[in-house]
Write a structure and sequence with these properties.
Number of strands: 5
Number of helices: 4
Largest sheet: 5 strands, mixed
Order of helices and strands: EHHEEEHEH
CATH architecture: 3-Layer(aba) Sandwich
CATH class: Alpha Beta
Distance between the termini: 46 Å
CATH topology: Aminopeptidase
Helix content: 25-40%
């Protein structure tokens, strides 16, 4: 397996994987997510792949077929004037093809992202997980992540 920055030839495969992760979210929160859609369009992906502040990493097999991805964003802190300034690498989305889950693709991607965060001088790696996505929560806890903050909602 080779982990690298995504490029335009990966876009069709990224869209397939985005559909898979969207369906997971739609199953958990059908009140928010629209099945059969994706988070990003092909044009948005083309622009994103050019943006070094939003790196997209892919895990590719020996035929250079994308098995999973990690969409990331460099974020500057603080959120307010009472916080120390630092840079975070935020994992906006991480997905492994349903057919290859359990083969350590996600672990390899996450470890690669951690290495990139260190290389880029980041203080931390962060992400959000939807309540109800217990498999993702277990995976990230296994990878050593701890809850930093909780966002709560009251649906009207």
């Amino acid at each position: 397996m080779n982990i690298r920055r995504a490029n335009e030839k990966d876009i069709p495969r990224l869209i397939e994987l985005l559909e898979q992760v969207l369906q997971i979210h739609a199953d958990i929160r059908p009140d928010i997510f629209i099945p059969g859609t994706t988070k990003y369009t092909e044009d948005e992906l083309k622009e994103m792949l050019k943006d070094d502040t939003k790196p997209v990493y892919v895990a590719a097999d020996e035929n250079d077929v994308c098995l999973g991805y990690a969409f990331c964003q460099l974020k500057q802190q603080p959120f307010s004037n009472n916080m120390v300034p630092f840079t975070s690498l935020f994992i906006d989305d991480l997905c492994v093809d349903a057919k290859t889950r359990g083969q350590h693709v996600g672990e390899s991607l996450f470890e690669y992202v951690k290495g990139e965060a260190k290389r880029l001088g980041c203080y931390e790696v962060t992400l959000n997980v939807w309540a109800g996505n217990t498999s993702a929560e277990k995976f990230y806890e296994k990878m050593g992540l701890k809850t930093k903050e909780r966002q709560m909602e009251y649906i009207l």
